[in-house]
Amino acid sequence: MRSALKQISMVLPAALILASCGDSGEKKAGGESAAKTETKAAPAALKPLDLTSNGIPLTIQAPEGATVGKEEGSDAVVVSKDRFNIIITEDKYGDEAATAEQAKETTLAEDNQSLNNPELGMKMEVLKNDPAGYIYMTTNKQGGKIVRFTTFVQKDKKKYIIKENFMALNDIDRSMETGYSISREEIETMYNAVKQ
């Protein structure tokens, strides 16, 4: 499972490079450059959602009418509605004795190492750092930004990693147009909804 998460993390640099391709300073009808501002998503009204029937002993907050199902080809559970889209994976945190806090520190250090890459023009900035989770933003050399989160939860002797469903939410066209592929507001809504 750790290798699957590393593969997802490795997709991010490629996505950021692709997002930097093309003319990021496209002109609008009036001749002015497209503004690189964060696209704001209206926070959805969230309600408690018990995931026990899906094999996960957690209750999170989710938009009313959110769908819950297995990710194709894995045991991960996806909770989604519109731009609210999270993925929950059971994981041993690499070391079965590791706590959620230790797993967070290890993963944050790995992300810092792999996502701060001057050769590719990439920079990672930690926006929020809690004991068992964090929110971070990556910026490519063209200014395209993606905000993401990772949180770790232990419950009933099981360990889980919860993230935004990056592959479903990442939109390269949106990143080039607005500067943001996944906005801070979207991520903060999801992060706060799943923290235990």
Model description:
The protein has a single domain, classed as Protein Transport Mog1p, Chain A, CATH 3.40.1000. Strands 3, 4, 5, 6, 7, 8, 9 and 10 form an eight-stranded mixed sheet that branches. The protein has a two-stranded antiparallel sheet with strand order 1-2. Helix 1 crosses helix 4. With 196 residues, the chain is an alpha+beta fold. The longest helix is centred in the first third of the chain and has 19 residues, at 2-20. The two termini are 22 Å apart. The protein has helices spanning 2-20, 100-115, 166-169, 172-178, 184-194; strands at residues 46-50, 59-63, 67-70, 77-81, 84-90, 123-130, 133-139, 145-155, 158-164, 180-182. It has five helices and ten strands.
Q: Give me the CATH fold name.
A: Protein Transport Mog1p, Chain A
Stretches where pLDDT is under 50 for at least 5 consecutive residues are: 1-40
Q: What's the average pLDDT?
A: 79
Q: In total, how many domains does the architecture comprise?
A: 1
CATH class: Alpha Beta
Terminal Cα separation, in Å? 22 Å
Rg over CA atoms, rounded to whole Å, is 17 Å
